[in-house]
Amino acid sequence: MTLADGGLPVLPLGADKRPFGNCHACADLACGGRPNMKAPGPCACPWPCHGWAAATTDPTVLATPQWRAAWRRARAIGYHPGGAGVTVVDLDNADAVDWARNTLPATTTVATTRGEHWIYSGTVRSVNAVRPGVDIKSLMSYARWLGPGTGTMTDVPTAVHALVEEKPAARPAPRAVTVPAPAGGGQCPHRSPVYLERGIAMAEQRIAEATSGVHATVYRTFLAVLSTHGRCGCLTDAHIGRLFLAAQAKGESPRHCTDTWSNATTALGM
């Protein structure tokens, strides 16, 4: 594909202009996710799964039968702006376009069905609704490819950085989630409850200190706790609840905690 040859990470979009859903094998991230999603473990699935993270420039991937079939079903082309080193200011209506013309420096622009895409060089955190009718699409996001546009691309302006910084990353409020502790059955090697308490506290600290790759850190921590304490019956619902609350404090959803715990127990054959 010409766009991918030029370094633009592309993915097929459906009739609703959204990425295709995960295939059955990858439903609910049962596969472990993809590295560039910062989810636990690699995914070798040949289908264009995982939303924006499916975007690729790899000719080997693009040439697979699964991707060729997906492109035949596609109704639009998507791309990952952050992977291309750009930021898209998505202006969804005439008022938003007027705001951009009065506020932002000129750059490459592309007409959309309802407004315009203003494309800048450089990447930022993606944030929707930074102001009425304005979305910022860059890292961990996708945009529709609507052509190369017109005008000379310039760097992401200070005004866009300010809009992104004004919108804090969403952090769902931690809430208790009940997951049955492993039944156990092996002989307990722990000589003191202090050993287990220290292990849980260290796991909470490891999650709390994660500055990037939070999904992967949570998965590895769950694996470590289960491999040490999961087979002897020492873990209780209270211990698991503490781990889940630590993960939620870093932005993980309750459902993702449950899925990650399940994936970890499956990986250990429990």
Main sheet: strands, sense, barrel = 5 strands, antiparallel
Query: What is the number of strand segments?
Result: 8
Shape summary = globular
Query: Order of strands across the widest beta sheet?
Result: 4-5-3-7-6
Mean pLDDT: 84
Count of DSSP-assigned helices: 9
Which structural class do you get from the secondary structure elements?
Answer: alpha+beta
Helix content estimate:
25-40%
Strand content: 5-15%
Rounded to an integer, what's the Rg over CA atoms?
22 Å
Low-confidence stretches: 170-177
Could you state the order of secondary-structure elements as H and E?
HEHHEEHEEEEEHHHHH
Cα(first) to Cα(last) distance is 44 Å
Provide key terms for this protein.
alpha+beta; globular; 270 residues; 3-stranded antiparallel sheet; 5-stranded antiparallel sheet; 35% helix
Structure notes:
The chain is of the alpha+beta class. It contains 9 helices and 8 strands. The protein has a 5-stranded antiparallel β-sheet. The protein has a 3-stranded antiparallel β-sheet with strand order 1-2-8. β4 (108-111) and β5 form a beta hairpin. 32% of the residues are buried.
Topology readout:
Blueprint: H1 2-5, E1 10-13, H2 59-62, H3 65-73, E2 76-79, E3 86-91, H4 94-103, E4 108-111, E5 116-121, E6 127-131, E7 134-137, E8 143-144, H5 158-166, H6 193-208, H7 214-229, H8 237-249, H9 254-267
Antiparallel strand pairs: 1-2, 2-8, 3-5, 3-7, 4-5, 6-7
In short:
It is built from 9 helices and 8 strands.
